């Protein structure tokens, strides 16, 4: 009896479940000779996968028969793909957005049509082009990388050249580098928003908001996610050269303080090395629960770490801010590890999440993997919302009252990243923030934390490692909230 009791106490004191108890990872075989540097993934209405690869191929994969077929080839660095129908794809390659159409139904594209190419090219290697994504009104969005001073430009350019856009570590000497572009249903192309450095990820979330990720670098102290709206400037100055009405000056002659007053800040920051190095595409869990307890949430890829991220938006005073938390998938029940280089994501009709990896000049890996949900409910953070005095944390399961009520189980620090011309930024003004009170909801699924202080324009990093739910451990014990605006008692909440 004593041995049984001791064994029981040890079991409850040291939860042993892992992400492998809920998700499994499968590596998808790819054709011999194909360099699997994935630039885009999308699913056709009939359930086939369409994938494009850096070296110009567009391939179709049938998950039922596990067979591949070449759909198109000869594209230039395609880095995004969107299915229109079983016979039509939109592919974003370096020089243009292209429509590929199989006119006779034999599974091979017969026509390659230009949809949009109203942007400049200097020949710089870093002028990648990403997208497209489509909103509920049928508008398409693409994003255009800035050029890098790690290489020059060609003698022959496409588009107008402006020497005022040439200085800087990253530059935009041709239009519309550093912009997100909108293509309306009637084919009109217009510059939509500016101020981006390397916007490798675009997505439309469950609320219809256009989200864009940008990578740490000059003018980006850490990687970021923006809620992008028309006409706004998001911080990287070189693209201002192509903004209508902007003075005929080099934007880099403006002070950081002036530029800071002009920009719209990120909705969610990804603290460097804690959350991400190079965030990539985002995708909404549209599986209706087939992928576990995260239906409707947005997942974000990451190039350098073997995990994904989830973002948890929180609307405050009409503006989106919120938290990010890792979604770890380090291994599956079959022992297959999640690789790095997760550049592209797509949910399949069966609710599994497909990942396309690349190492094309970056830290990464190559190939395709699929994450399947196998059942059960892991203990994880489902939501994080700001209150006037702290934060509410909502979990997927009721948490144990004993651990949830202990102040020592919540470690909080706050800091910010500097907005400046230099590459990246260390964490600035790092402060420990004591948790002064804890309340637990009657269903034990929401913990309300009162903090000693809340300050805007800071990131709040919470560590919750000791929270448990019976035999379950918390899958991800670190979460970071980007606090741009404080919430007052009179301001409601909406996600």
UniProtKB/TrEMBL annotation:
Keyword field contains Signal: yes
TM regions (residue ranges): none
Cross-referenced SUPFAM superfamilies: DPP6 N-terminal domain-like (SSF82171), Soluble quinoprotein glucose dehydrogenase (SSF50952)
Segment forming the signal sequence: none
Domain annotation DUF7133: ranges: 68-217
Keywords for the protein's UniProt record, in alphabetical order: Signal
Protein's name in the database: DUF7133 domain-containing protein
Lineage: Bacteria, Pseudomonadati, Bacteroidota, Cytophagia, Cytophagales
């Amino acid at each position: 009896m004593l041995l049984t009791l001791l064994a029981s106490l040890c079991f409850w004191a040291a939860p042993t479940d892992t992400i492998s108890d809920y998700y499994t990872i499968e590596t998808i075989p790819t054709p011999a000779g194909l360099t699997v540097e994935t630039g885009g993934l999308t699913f056709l209405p009939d359930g086939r996968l369409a994938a494009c690869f850096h070296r110009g191929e567009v391939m179709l994969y049938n998950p039922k028969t596990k067979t591949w077929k070449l759909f198109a080839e000869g594209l230039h660095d395609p880095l995004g793909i969107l299915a229109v129908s079983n016979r039509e794809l939109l592919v974003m390659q370096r020089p243009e957005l292209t429509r590929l159409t199989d006119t006779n139904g034999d599974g091979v594209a017969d026509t390659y049509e230009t949809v949009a190419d109203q942007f400049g090219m200097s020949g710089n290697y870093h002028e990648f082009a990403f997208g497209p994504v489509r909103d509920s009104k049928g508008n398409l969005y693409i994003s255009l990388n800035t050029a890098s001073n790690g290489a020059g430009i060609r003698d022959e350019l496409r588009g107008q050249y402006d020497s005022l856009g040439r200085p800087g570590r990253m530059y935009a000497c041709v239009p519309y580098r550093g912009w997100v572009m909108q293509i309306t249903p009637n084919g009109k192309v217009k510059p939509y928003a500016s101020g981006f450095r390397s916007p490798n990820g675009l997505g439309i979330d469950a609320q219809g908001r256009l989200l864009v990720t940008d990578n740490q670098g000059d003018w980006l102290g850490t990687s970021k996610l923006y809620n992008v709206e028309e006409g706004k400037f998001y911080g990287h100055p070189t693209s201002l050269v192509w903004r209508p009405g902007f003075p005929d000056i080099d934007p880099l002659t403006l002070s950081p303080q002036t530029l800071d007053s002009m920009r719209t800040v990120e909705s969610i920051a990804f603290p460097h090395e804690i959350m991400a190095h190079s965030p990539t595409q985002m995708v909404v869990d549209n599986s209706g629960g087939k992928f576990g307890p995260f239906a409707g949430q947005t997942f974000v890829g990451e190039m350098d770490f073997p995990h994904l991220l989830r973002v948890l938006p929180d609307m405050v005073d009409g503006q989106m801010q919120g938290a990010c938390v890792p979604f770890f998938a380090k291994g599956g029940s079959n022992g297959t590890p999640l690789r790095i280089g997760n550049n592209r994501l797509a949910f399949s009709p069966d609710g599994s999440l497909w990942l396309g990896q690349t190492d094309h000049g970056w830290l990464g890996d190559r190939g395709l993997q699929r994450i399947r949900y196998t059942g059960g409910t892991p203990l994880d953070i489902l939501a994080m919302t700001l209150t006037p005095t702290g934060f509410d944390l909502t979990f997927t399961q009721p948490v144990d009252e004993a651990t949830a009520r202990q102040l020592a189980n919540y470690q909080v620090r706050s800091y910010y990243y500097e907005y400046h011309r230099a590459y990246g930024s260390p964490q600035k003004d790092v402060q420990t923030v004591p948790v002064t009170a804890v309340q637990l909801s009657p269903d034990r699924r929401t913990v309300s934390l009162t903090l000693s202080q809340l300050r805007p324009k800071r990131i709040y990093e919470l560590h919750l490692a000791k929270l448990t739910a019976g035999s379950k451990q918390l899958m991800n014990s670190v979460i970071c909230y980007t606090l741009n605006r404080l919430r007052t008692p009179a301001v409601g909440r909406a996600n």
